[in-house]
Amino acid sequence: MSVFEIAALLVTLSALFGWINLRFLRLPHTIGLLAMALSASLLLLLLQKIVPGLEVAPALRGVLEEIDFYSALMEGMLSLLLFAGALHVDLDLLKDQKWPIAAMASIGVVISTAVIGVALWLAAGALGLDLSLPWALVFGALISPTDPVAVLGLLKTIDVPETIKAKIAGESLFNDGVALVAFSVLVTIAMVSGDQHYPSVIGTAEFLLYEGAGSAVFGLATGWIAYRAMLAVDDHIVEILISVAVCLATYTLCHRLHLSGPIAVVVTGLLIGNHGAEHAMSEKVEEYLFAFWEVVDEMLNSVLFLLIGLEVLVIAFAPENAWIVLAAIPIVLAGRFVSVSIPISLLSLRRAFSAGAIPILTWGGLRGGVSVALALSLPDGPAKPMLLTATYAVVIFSVIVQGLTMKRVIGWTQRRAKA
User: Fold this and answer.
1) What pLDDT digit, counting tens, does each position of 241-253 carry?
2) Whose CA is closest to 405, among 39, 143, 28, 40?
3) Fewer Cβ within 10 Å of end Cβ, the chain: N or C?
4) In contact, 360 and 409? CB cutoff 8 Å
């Protein structure tokens, strides 16, 4: 199939499943799409077992195998999704919560990677599975970042205290950069052998600084250029085109300059969505531009979660990995709890936090397409099927179970605070 035919199929399925969900299931949009796509995939696999001659599942599997999930998300969709998400975030609230966000998006990712990696390594050893500590830490790195697409989609559907909403949104927007660096370094460590050298601590720290601070400065620069261009005109078509251009150009140039595209495009989106909206846009332009990006956000969200649900058709699930999957879910939750508790507890010595911040931040740390894409990008080897299966299970549990029960967790924490 051509790229256009594949895109047409995915958008059509997204629209169909979205209509069915809105008409009958009434689940949050992305959760409903994921649940329906997953159910359809499992039904097709079951029908294939019952009726071996049925060619629907193999045909759809063939289409999905033509899609490079990693490239489609990390080198295409993610730039637009992050820009759209950052565009709608209140920068003042983000500034007010800058220290918790910075701590969770940096130190929290490192803590989570270590806790999850070591725990999974011990669990695999206890279950008699062959999983080395370096590859277990790779899993910790790829599963630690909260997914901005899943998190921001969830926050649209539930009532969360503003300060906690800012922490969850800000962390999800900025922790991808740290996690991607940690993932790259740990994959290199896991693959080295013989006389090859491990990455140095100083080199890794310099890389993190270059990727983090350098990417933020670059995003600020491109955002300022776009802001000045918008300030000079008053036309909603041209200004929407400028916003699309700066999003795509920033992300593409970062790839060429070995900077973090996710961090840069988030900074650009925050600048355009706040300073740009206040000073460079008329009321009409602001209305059109934000409506345009909301449509882009929802459409790409729909396609992404549809793809996650359909990927079950192409992922090989080995029965011997079932126990590690069951262990991975509580391990990831425990790692999230520790990575949230330590920064928040330390910062609470100097400032007060909303009641129930730790349990809400723990349960609201959804995983999504970024983790699946990183797992699919792992080099072929004995560890990949196990880590891919565990990643997929954690993402499905995170989006469906945690997403659907988040409102209850918030209610529970608020009742507990009043008691």
Assistant:
1) 999 999 999 999 9
2) 28
3) C
4) yes
CA atoms within 13 A on the CB side of 271: 23
| pLDDT tens per residue, range 295-320 | 999 999 999 999 999 988 888 777 77
Is residue 281 located within the same domain as residue 399? yes
Asked if residue 205 and residue 281 are part of one domain, the reply reads yes
Q: And the tokens for 114?
A: 């270590």
Structural domain including 413 reads: 69-418
The encoded tokens of residue 305 equal: 């979660």
Q: How confident is the model at residue 205 (pLDDT cuts 50, 70, 90)?
A: low
Residue 58's Cβ-side half-sphere holds a number of Cα atoms within 13 Å equal to 7
> Does 48 share its domain with 104?
no
DSSP 320: G
Which among 31, 47, 65 is the end of a domain?
65
8 Å CB contact between 146 and 168: yes
Segment 148-158 mean pLDDT:
78
- Nearest CA to 336 out of 310, 372, 364 is that of 364
CATH number at residue 77: 1.20.1530.20
CB 355 within 8 A of CB 413: yes
Would the pLDDT of 352 be above 50? Answer: yes
